[in-house]
Amino acid sequence: MDWWIEPFTLGFEQRALIGGALAGLMSSIVGTWLVLRGMSFFGDAFVHGVVPGIAAAVVLEINPVIGAAVAALVMVLLIEVVNRQTSLTEDTGIGLLFVGMLALGVVIISRLSTFSGSLTTILFGDALGVTTNDLWAQGILALAIIIVTTALYRPLLALSFNRDKAELLGMRPKATHAALLILIAAAVIGSFQSVGTLLVFGLLVGPPAAAALLARTVPRMMLISAGIALVSVWLGLTLSYHLGTAGSATMALMPIIIFFLVLTIVRLRLVFAKRTAVERAEYV
Amino acid sequence: MSDLHSHHDHSGAAEAVLAEELVLGHNSHIAVHASSFFIPAGKVTTVIGPNGSGKSTLLHAIAGLISPLSGSLRVLDAQPQTRREHISYVLQNTTVPVGTPITVAETVMMGRYPGLGLMRRPSKLDRARVSEAMEKLRITDLAKRHLGELSGGQRQRVYVAQGIAQDHDLLLLDEPLTGLDIGSAQTIDEIIHQEPEGGCTVILTTHDLDEARASDFVVLLAGRVIAAGPPAAVLTNEHLLTAYGLGGLHRSEDAEPTTDHHHHDHSDHDHQHGH
Ligand SMILES: Nc1ncnc2c1ncn2[C@@H]1O[C@H](COP(=O)(O)OP(=O)(O)OP(=O)(O)O)[C@@H](O)[C@H]1O
Ligand SMILES: [Mg+2]
After folding, report:
1. From the list B101, B106, B114, which residue is nearest A221 (CB)?
2. ipTM reported for the complex, 2 dp
3. A84 touching chain B per CB within 8 A
4. What is d(CA A73, CA B218) in angstroms, rounded to the nearest whole number?
């Protein structure tokens, strides 16, 4: 038992746990809609798209959160431009920006003398370097995200169901889609400091994907997803403490492992259920 | 033409839909060429025509999902977009994104969203309307099932239930009977023909001539309105040949609208309007 709690007697490990938990909560709840709407690729691009903003902020010595927010805005606007001005699909626009923004980020960072150190921090976060102030900011953002996502439950559900139907029901699909993009941006910005941009994606998609295999309603999916995210963070930090591995990376690995575990269990149960159904049918 | 105007003037709204020189399309592609017609209120109207003839496009325009490229379209005596709360539209084979965890009951409850808005909890009335709709469509026993776990026909019944659970004066149904077994088709058919009893207007599209014959009013489409009026006057061999180009009796261009036919049909249409 001690083995599981021992790491968290240290102050910075406690902060890492709380920071990771908040990141996991907001990412997994927003991520539920991302996964349901088949926008994982968008999430991926988005997460990497904020890198140049953070890098520029580091170079200019301003708050990286502001840099990330500006980059997120540029990203959304450019995707819209590619979307509207060409007949290319949204995927192509996203792909172009994904590569472009990531490369730009690395170019900016490569100007710094502490090149590899800064890059690692941006991409993989600094779970153990989170301050109490960071936690307060993260907590407020997480609360806002959870409230807005809950308030937009109906428009988001209608939008995942069918865009035209959402429009007909007065659920304003365009505004809802825009709101979802903002929510994703907020979750990424609120999470990257503790788990890093590269690994926010793991929390954004991993827990909801695993939850999708288990849940029969969207609210249930959000709850399971949040649960998986919390377990991932705690398990990841504990393992990294005992095994001496990188905190953020170990945390981000967990939801993916959980996903494949859940998948295996669900599949096995299905095979078993089929066999009993066939046997029962043969009896009759 | 003058006949149409006089109708329009006593705005007790004898017509649910009134179109004048209406042109519809997607982006620059024209799906329905200039057509003038009306659809009566409080009746069952079927819209019939070959694949790609513009049936869904017309319903989209009536529901206010797309705007006319030119001409005018009035629905319940106003711009379609301003009539949203009065219109319920059951879309053609809505595909559900696989894996969306949504139950049948929740899908039908969506029909109540316009009144519920973002936050209001469903009232007794909302719940009653949902269970009534599910009973009518015989899907009560499917309430807890996943939308993705249903057969195509069962899902179609769920979408119709969603449509009638929504408050409406005008019910639009895009091919509600396509792909249904006899029992399900009969269930939906009964509901369609009960709707006018409460003063409701029904417009549905179909590929079934018998269904069209059983309705009060028919709009025949083939890239434009070929004819509109009572079934007996619209579903004539001549009109059907024009619309479907069947039998190889006519040259293939006949499937395409020509100015010649256009004029002919106008007089035809105005004549029926006088009834
Ligand atoms: N979203 C769209 N974008 C571009 N063109 C479209 C779109 N939807 C339909 N069309 C075109 O508009 C025309 C009319 O299509 P519509 O869907 O209204 O036909 P329909 O009569 O409903 O056919 P069906 O019997 O197959 O349902 C067709 O030529 C079609 O290719
Ligand atoms: Mg159609």
Report:
1. B101
2. 0.83
3. no
4. 51
Alpha helices in B82-236 (DSSP H): 104-109, 113-116, 124-136, 152-165, 182-194, 209-213, 231-234
pTM summary value? 0.85
pLDDT, tens digit, 9 for 90 and up, residues B48-89: 999 999 999 999 999 999 999 999 999 999 999 999 999 999
Task: Tell me, using a 6 A CB cutoff, whether residue B29 lines ligand 1.
Answer: yes
CATH number reported for the structural domain that contains residue A278 in this entry: 1.10.3470.10
Structural tokens at position A68: 């990330």
Q: Is B93 a pocket residue for ligand 1 (Cβ < 6 Å)?
A: no
Ligand closest to CA B25: 1
Q: Would you list the domain boundaries of chain B?
A: 15-240
Kindly list the distances between the CA atom of residue A231 and the CA atoms of A132, A209, A218, A252, B138, in Å, as whole numbers in the listed order.
22, 15, 20, 11, 43
* Ligand 2 midpoint to CA B176 (Å): 11
Count of domains forming chain A? 1
Q: Is B206 in the pocket of ligand 1 (CB under 6 A)?
A: no
- B15-240, CATH topology level: Rossmann fold (3.40.50)
Q: Range of A252's domain?
A: 2-283
C-beta neighbour count of B163 within 10 angstroms: 24
